[in-house]
Amino acid sequence: MAPRISRLRPLLDQIQRTQRRAASQAASEVSAIRPENGTVIFSGIQPTGIPHLGNYLGALQNWKRLQNEAEPGTKLLYSIVDLHAITLPQQAPMLRQWKREMLAALLAVGLDPERSSIFYQSSVPGHSELMWILSCTASMGYLSRMTQWKSKLHLADDVSALDEKAKASLKLGLFSYPVLQAADILVHRATHVPVGEDQRQHLEFARECATNFNHTFGAGSRLLVPPETILSPAKRIMSLQTPTSKMSKSDTDPRSRILLTDSADEIRKKIMAAKTDSAANAVSYDRTGRPGVSNLLELWASFDAAGRSPEALAAGMAEGKGSLKDLKVQVADVLVEEIPPIGERYRAFLERDGGRYLDEVEARGAAVAIANAAETMEIVKRAVGLSN
Ligand code: TYM
Q: Is 41 within 8 Å of 33 (Cβ atoms)?
């Protein structure tokens, strides 16, 4: 009996680890908080193009809500993560332009530099400095199980970092991307991180880095703060053309996403061309059975002034015998009201003061972030033995 159990031990351990991870994940996710004194909100977005509806509904809208509901004493830090962007090849002039455009887009969605510090990640040295220190305790095994580097390189989920196929294309920066993301969060002692669902695994890793560090260098005391994830109700907006995949900046089909700078005309065309299904011409909400129809209902629900759920909107459409085309017209109408004003503000911010306004906003945000990160780095360096 004993040898059999010992052979099963690795499997049992793995099941237990998965269960523990699921439990800690459930415990650490909150959908809504009212930020109060002592709360530190941090999040980031890559400057790899104009943000789309997925970024907006999955993250940016929540960034704005948290800012607007924050009580005095709450710190709000939002970073344009340019160091993450270069984990894949970028053209230097394009990257420079995208950084500015992202800054203008964040202001256009409603971030207010009087309340939120908005800054480029590369302006704050603490991010990369802490990343190096965390790299010295981060497990290669854990990192190689993470899925993002595999999906970015179009590799299968079961590929290992040492496989020939991976070794040929995998760069160290892309492999260690989650360590930099953990450093982004931990260097600011963030208590809450509003993100879309695709970032869940990275947030779990950041918590693991914090606990690991505290255990190794602080005898368990809270030197670094394990953050909580804040997910919005629209945590995963799907592509308009392949509704089983998430809406993404890197999708080669521009009709798959609605950009925050799209005109009313572009929005209508993209929504009317959205893939649904031929199961029925009636509207119903079923995320797995009818992903295209359900995605449209979720888009509508996200902007519904009456706060109706996708299920309630589907029931209303079914009652009025609305067709899939009627649904698309309805969704397009709602989006056309909400999105083009963001584009107008975006263009105005880009041009304000001949571009100097954006530089000032960033410089002010970076100054706050540099000071905040320096406080943590002092604690970290002392704990590790790098300073007295
Ligand atoms: P990025 O730039 O891919 O996306 C920015 C935010 O948008 C969310 N998002 C979505 N939400 C719902 N549906 C979608 N289709 C969708 N697509 C994107 C993302 O979840 C994210 O919240 N690794 C991060 C950037 C990052 C970061 C951080 C985030 C770097 N350091 C620290 C939080 C904390 C990324 O690539 O996001």
A: no
User: Following DSSP, what letter does each residue of 319-359 receive, concatenated?
Assistant: HTT-BHHHHHHHHHHHHHHHHHHHHHHHHHHHHGGGGHHHH
Which amino acid, residue 155? L
Going by C-beta distance under 8 Å and a sequence separation of 6 or more, which residues neighbour residue 19?
none
Express the helix, strand and coil content of the chain in percent, nearest 5 each.
Answer: 60, 10, 35
Question: What are the Cα distances from residue 8, in Å, to 18, 141, 294, 384?
Answer: 15, 20, 42, 38
Ligand 1 in reach of 270 Cβ (< 6 A): no
Ligand 1, atom 22: closest residue by C-alpha: 195
Q: How far apart are CA 247 and CA 206, in angstroms?
A: 24
**pLDDT tens readout for residues 240-263:** 999 999 999 999 999 999 999 999
> Which parts of the chain register pLDDT below 70?
1-28
With a 6 Å cutoff on the Cβ, whether 246 touches ligand 1 is: yes
DSSP string, 101-151: HHHHHHHHHT--TTTSEEEEGGG-THHHHHHHHHHTT--HHHHHH-SHHHH
**How far are the Cα atoms of 272, 293, 298, 300, 312 from residue 278, in angstroms, in the given order?**
15, 10, 19, 21, 22
DSSP β-ladder status, 75-80 and 117-120 = parallel
Looking at 150, 246, 270, 328, which residue is catalytic?
246
- 381 as an active site residue: the answer is no
pLDDT at site 295 = 98
* Ligand 1 centre distance from Cα of residue 155 (Å): 20
Burial tier of 343 (Cβ tally within 10 Å: 0-12, 13-18, 19+): buried
Cβ partners under 8 Å of residue 122, min gap 6: 82, 83
